[in-house]
Amino acid sequence: MLATNGIPTAEELAPRIPPAERLKKGPVAVIECFQKIPCNPCYTACRVGAIEKFEDINDLPKIDFEKCTGCGLCISKCPGLAIFVVDETYSESEATVSMPFEFLPLPEEGQEVDLLDRSGAVVGRGKVVKVRKGKYEDRTPIVTVTVPKHLSMVVRNIRVGGGKK
Amino acid sequence: MKHTEIAVIGGGPAGLMAALAAAEMGASVTLIDRNSRLGGQLVKQTHKFFGSERQYASVRGIDIAKILSDKIEENPKIEVMLDSTVVAYYPDDGVLGIEVEEKKWVKMKAERIVVATGASEKFLLFENNDLPGIYGAGAVQTLMNEHGVLPGKNVLMVGAGNIGLIVSYQLMQAGVNVKAIIDAAPTIGGYWVHASKVARLGIPILTSHTVKAAYPNKMTGALERAVIWKLDEKWQPVPGTEKVFNVDVMCIAVGLSPLAEILWQAGCRMKYVPELGGHVPVRNENMETTVPGIYVAGDVAGVEEASSAMMEGRLAGLSAAQSLGYDDGSCEDKKAEVKRELENLRSGPVGEKIRKGLSKLAS
Fold first, then answer.
1. Which of A38, A118, A119 lies closest to B51 in CB terms?
2. Does A6 touch chain B if contact means CB atoms closer than 8 Å?
3. Which of B188, B201, B348 sits opposite A4 (nearest CB)?
């Protein structure tokens, strides 16, 4: 439970997950923001108007999944590092998850890494397909990693190298 | 004796904004800070900030410090005194006593004063809480992010407020192992997004837990072991629930209290408001205390976020300048805008404690 250990339950998570139909169409942002805090950079980052204007800066972000192109420009702008882009159309058996990753060493494209869930537990291995670390990302690199399709809503972190705790 | 129109004491987010706002209206400002560079606590905040564009949301604290101090340095209306600590205020003639570079004594008469001195870390009572290796979390952040020194190898973080959560994340970024974050409260006090960030690194957060005791290494005398235990719903420890952590560092992040010595010396009316961190100055809606001409902003006025500290600083700076007659007609509008901004920042559920504190202070 978020309030006691920082890990959302399935119930807490449910309203933030894009509908299955939308997930079949390609990459889309999953905004794991559950608490009304005064913050709105996700709205100002979105270039396609998928994140609604905040009437009150304390509102939770409202996203129009149909408008969202999964471009990922919001990922590095979220101060809470709470936005992920999930692409379930990557291949027959695999999805990709793009996530903010502010740790060294940064993985290289093609490198295999441990896949971690929201509690930091290792749930599998995946391959890094892209690392974005330009001026726009401002020292919050975005790592895109392949995950078994059934783990697209489970994997939210990686461990480079892997095997050690 | 030095003379200035507006003395701003403290070059953190509140003080920087106060100085800029007062200068923007045309007043001459002297900004005094005890450190050798401006920025206050911003200089170690490596994370991106919340809020809106107006409070530099999505920009890292370290970069906000740079943006604001560059603006200060470019501004001919602002004189900066670094390595300068205001240690006295003489109420009879309103003179400030400033220790400069630990060797010179400078007296300054300011027509208006903005006190933006911030806050200091609270501590926690438990057996052996004075062992080497037990730090304030903010101190560890300074050591690590400002001076590039690691505090140790394995850490127990005490306090799951924003500081405890953020410093835990930054310790992990620096390669230090945070074994757990504990908090006496039944729920996490910090933002949940910060909690989720550390949770997915594998750090367990244990609410309703507190420190029972710390134990030293027999050879070195430094911290080697920490014992925690569970609290029941009445916040009483439950014997038999002890857990042992082999750690060489313990960080205490149990809140801040306002650094209000200058305000006490000046005779400002103070009120004890736990929601705001302790004794805080009574003030009007323009941030002026009960001593005319002395304004406050930021954590010294009530412990809150850097975003609201910046807004309070701007409000205090505008008000102080206006009271000296610096007003091109835009001052009231600018003040109203800042007040709206502050109200917005505090209007949500996480602002409840601050709202409660402020209404107690006003009553």
1. A38
2. yes
3. B188
In chain B, the residue whose alpha carbon lies closest to the alpha carbon of A159 is B201
Is the pLDDT score of B248 beyond 60? yes
Out of A80, A102, A121, name the one closest to residue B193 (CB). A80
Give the best residue of A13, A35, A51 to mutate against chain B (max B CB count within 10 A).
A35
The fold adopted by the segment(s) B130-252 is FAD/NAD(P)-binding domain (3.50.50)
CATH 3.50.50.60 fits B2-120+256-362, yes or no: yes
Element (H, E) at A126: strand A122-132
Give the strand order in the sheet containing B243-245. Answer: B209-216, B223-230, B243-245
Contacts across the A-B interface (CB distance below 8 Å): 135
A117: contact with B, CB 8 A cutoff: yes
* Residue B216 φ then ψ, to 5°: -90, 160
The yes-or-no verdict on residue A153 having pLDDT over 50 is yes
ipTM score:
0.96
For residue A120, the chain B residues in CB contact (below 8 A) are 199-203
- Say whether residue A56 is in contact with chain B using an 8 A CB cutoff: yes
Per-residue pLDDT reduced to its tens digit, B20-65: 999 999 999 999 999 999 999 999 999 999 999 888 999 999 999 9
Q: How confident is the model over B253-303, as pLDDT tens digits?
A: 999 999 999 999 999 999 999 999 999 999 999 999 999 999 999 999 999
B130-252 shares the fold of B2-120+256-362: yes
Asked if B22 and B31 count as a contact pair (C-beta separation under 8 A), the reply is no
CB contact under 8 A, B51 and A36: no
> Residue B85's pLDDT is what?
98
Written as one string, the DSSP assignment of B173-240 is HTT-EEEEEEESSSS--S-HHHHHHHHTTT--EEESEEEEEEEE-TTT-SEEEEEEEEB-TTS-B-TT
Instruction: List chain B domain ranges.
Output: 2-120+256-362, 130-252
Partners of B60 on chain A (C-beta within 8 Å) are: 138-139
pLDDT (average), residues B225-249? 98
Q: Name the β-bridge partners of B134.
A: B250
Among chain A residues, the shortest Cα distance to B204 is held by A5
Q: What average pLDDT does the structure give for chain A? A: 96
Give the residue among B174, B134, B173 at the shortest CA–CA distance from B157.
B134
Nearest to B188 among A6, A82, A120 (CB): A6
